[in-house]
Each structure stands twice: as structure tokens, then as C-alpha cells.
Amino acid sequence: MVQVDACREHLERSLALIKRFRQAVLAAAVSGRLTEEWRKKNEINNHWEQKTIGEVTENAKQYKPKSDEEFYYIDIASIDKDQKKIINPKEYLGKDAPSRARQVVETGDILVSMTRPNLNSVALVTPEFNNQIASTGFDVLRPINIEPEWLFLLVRTDKFIAKMSELVQGALYPAIRPKDIRSFSIPSPSLNEQKEIIRRVEALFAYADRLESRYQTARKLVDDLTPALLAKAFRGELVPQDPNDESASMLLERIRIEKAKQAEEPRRVGKKQPREVKMTGDSVKEIIQNLPQDTFSFDELREKISGDYDEIKDILFNLLAEPNPQIRQVFDTSTQAIRFIRSGR
User: Fold this and answer.
1) Number of structural domains found in the chain
2) With CB atoms 3.0 to 4.6 Å apart as the test, which of 143, 194, 242, 337 could cross-link to 150 if both were Cys?
3) Contact predicate 108/124, CB 8 Å
């Protein structure tokens, strides 16, 4: 089992590395490092122009679906924030549509969730969702004079996520505004270089996808190992067995019989523990009165009382100082120690 846990931890570290690999690819892509050699080979200027997202996009069409119109509604819950894809959007009739179902999306649009931007719920609209309806909780970016996939890369970078997270407004419902997204500055290489970057990123991401697929397969195997090992252990198949040993089923039956016998036996009632009495002068007097002998030492009295040494001593001194003391103290020459004498029973 320890080895299984170690294997699981190793796999989790592998998954973290895959995620970091993807972010490293994005960082290299948007910084120009990924196509640096390509630019040299094609004698292209290294300088990239900077533009805002608002300069290279336009707004989506606002539209209220007709009451009998069927459509797929893409809301924030429809976005897989890990895969950055639209998954399982709900189908509605216009009369049943949520009030936020107002934005018509087209193939190539980029959906950026304005709620909790740190989660980076973004997606590229693919052909199967062309002319469907998205929530107004998205800023729908419609690219103009820019490759959609290039813009889609940019809104997945750590830099974009960090900047949008800084601009969040509200605590209970943290969100950003369309103008926050549109004012974000992005690099704008030539369209040819954008296409080359996209080609390289897709190839590297495909490699990462294959690694993640292997991770998922390995993780399932590891997860299946635990119950399999437990089953083998229960059957006694993990270690060599002594043929004289009883089987697990016989052991369980014996345990069941023993429990049944115990349940049938009368319940034993233990001795009730004596209630601890608060120590006072009167309680000490009562204990002294019940001592079997008239003389006693301090230690002999302490054996009968559960209390603090100094507290018992103080009580004894108070008893000795009473007008008609119950006890008096004498020096025992035989033991060379102070003893107490009870005045009478």
C-alpha cells in the first residue's frame, strides 16, 4: 500500500509538470521565443507591435431569442476551465431562456468569463456552436485582423490571468468589466507569424495531451490497485500461506461466534467508584473519628485522604487551634516523630 501511495504521488507530480509545460509553451509563444529562429530564417523583424484587445476585436450581437426558437445556451457552467472548451451546453426554447441568454456567438469568437477571472474560464467557439446564445456573463471577443487562435492563446497566459485578477471588483461576486479585458495590451505579430506560432503551440499541446492521457490511464490503474490489493490480502494471496492456517472466511465465522457468545453473557457491573468528597475541616474530623486507633501519624492520615499535602497540614493546624480540639499532638520518643492523639471516640 505504501508503494501504491508513492506511485500516486509521483503521478500527481507528473500532472503538475504537464500543466507547467503548457504554461511555459504559452509564455514562449507570446514572448516571441517560440518563433525566434523562424523569424531569422525568414528575415522578419523581431519587433512586435502592441495593441489592446479592444483594437483587434468587436462586440457580439445582442439578441433576445424568440419564444419558440430552440438554441444551445452557453453559460459559465458550460466551460471546462481545465480543457478551455465548451462542454454540455443546455438546450432551451426562447420562452424558457434565462434572462442572461442574450449574446449570439459565432465560430472563432473567444468567450472570457467576467466572474472570478482567476479561474480563467475561457473558450474558443467551435463550428458546432455557431449562432448559439451565450450568457452576458461572458465578454465575447470577436477577432478582427487577428487570428482567433492567437487571441485565444493570449487570454490563457499567466500574465492575462494575473492582470484580470488584480482588477476584480466585489468580494461576494468578484468580477471584471468588459473594458478591463478590452484595455489589456497584447503583442501583435504578423498574421503569418501568428499562424506559425499557432501551429507550433498546437503540436506541443498535442504532445502534452498525449502525456496527460497516459497519466489518466496510469492513475486509473493505480486507483484500481488499492481495492485489488485489499482483496488479495483478504484472500491471503499476498504472502505464502501455511496450509494449516484457517481461511479468512473461517476466521470471520469464529469471530462472529465469539461475539455472539459475549452478547449472551450477563453484563458485569463494575464496582462503583467512590465519589470524591471535597476536603474540609469537618470531613477530616469524620475521617479521624473513624480511624481504628487513637494515635496516628500525619502520613497515616494522608493515606485515608486524597488531597494536597499543604491543604491537609493547614486543616490539622486549624483543628489543633480549636477551643476544644478533637486532636492533640505529642512527640513520640520511640519514633522520634510527631504523632496525633484523638481526644475521644
Assistant:
1) 3
2) 194
3) yes
